[in-house]
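Job type: complex structure
Entries:
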Amino acid sequence: MARRPAPPLPSALKAPPPRPGEGNGPLSPVEQAKEAGITVVDWVDERTSLSGAARWLMFRKVPKGTNWYYTLGSATLFAFLSQAVTGVFLAMFYRPDAAGGAYESIRHITDDVFLGQFVRGMHLWGASVMVVLVFLHMGRTFLFGAYKYPRELNWVIGVVLLILTMVMALTGYLLPFDQRAYWATIVANNITATGPLVGPYLGDFLRSGPEFTATTLSRFYAIHMLLVPGAIAALIGAHLYLVTKLGTTAPPWSKVDRRPELSETEV
Amino acid sequence: MNRVEKEQYLRDYSVLKAQGKPFFPYAVAKDGAMACVVLAVIITLSLVLGAGQGPKANPTTTSYVPRPDWYFFFLFELLRVVKPSSLTQLATIGVPTIGMILLFLLPFYDRGPERRPERRPIAMLTFVVVVAAMALLTYKGAHAGDPTTIGMATPPRIVRTGGATLAEYEAGKAVVAQSGCLACHKIGENGNDGPGPNLTHVAARLPVLAVARTLVNPTAPMPSFKNLPPNKFKAAVAFLSQLK
Ligand code: HEM
């Protein structure tokens, strides 16, 4: 910026000279926007110290040789997020009413609501995709021996996630409340009730009594849209905490190259 | 793994990790690409296959053959493989429970330091057997029919009797055919052989009352049919009690 001569003002009205360290002259709008961004981040960081966590999460190193098979876990996570988003939209229209409201609300979503069938289809097929991905991811960690020391606990959390994913698939199947949903669920529930120890209680709990009634549907709905998704989200958090803390495995075939200049660690 | 092996592992791992690339942006880019593939697959499936809706749930008519979604086929099919009804419990609960316990405890009994698949023959053999078994059961489950007709000649003695007996027999045949029984039972040439017993000759082993009792108060996984309208229920029992 070219310097123009200062106007002849009394010294009391003159702008004070810039303090050392402060830039000279006003900032351009782009610079101002950048400053604002930095200020906000600084403000939050000063109060939360989150930047350390973000750096810990994002700038950790993944071992040499990490390949495409390592994306299966995050792909499962993405499928879960897709189910959560489409599920929210379905919940805006669904009514867990066994007397006919449930069936009618599904019909309404499928036939009347804008893009309703599309979103329902995404949720329906997304369930299959998530089940497939969770099995593939489990297969990958099994084949790579990733469940061994020190990642045993993460495997155990993973098995719970697998079971909860299957519970989601099972409870969701009833909600459209057509013939197929109704009869398949009765059979599934009967099977559950034959389980050892807790089986009969679990069966009664799911049915909300010895009989399949209108409450059964609301109960399945609450389990499907609140209880289990909450548990899954929390457990995914624990799973990912351990992944970040322990680091992902290197592929089992990796050769350890022990030249000293390379083993200089800066993690 | 003993302590030396654990320390060796951690040392090797820290070297491999130090030689790796930062998670952001390298791994994030791959994960992002994969997320796009997943989204594309879901959208394509939704657009091509859509979301249908069957007839409304109705406890009094079971025109639908009870059948789980495809990812539970392998469990349902297990019921068919384990035939004797004394072992049904083993198939429904025993095998899955034991499988789950083994899966949970895997890191605690497979503690060897070796990670390369080609040097873990037992683990790989188990993997292949389990995957093959699940694939086979799923395939068989997908190809088990949803039969809703019973193509059985009416026995001559009933034709000869005629009248109400014949009418009730025919009505009962239709009820049984349409009530999903064939998903689990074989009657004559129709239906799936299992998980329930073959019903072609039930009346020879069960009295009429026992058949009726089974329909009202069955053993799992068979659903109860006590909500069938009384005339349909009566016809079904009459039909079954003629299957000698
Ligand atoms: C909702 C389901 C799941 C989600 C969202 C999920 C997510 C993830 C993610 C993002 C990773 C990072 C590395 C990678 O992608 O391979 C990971 C690692 C891992 N997961 Fe999962 N996972 C799920 C289920 C499972 C299941 C069912 C198992 C096995 C029983 C499992 C066992 C593991 C193990 C052992 C690791 C560490 C792998 C390594 O360090 O190489 N997870 N998971």
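Summary: Chain B has a mean pLDDT of 85. Chain B has three domains: 1-49, 66-144, 156-240.
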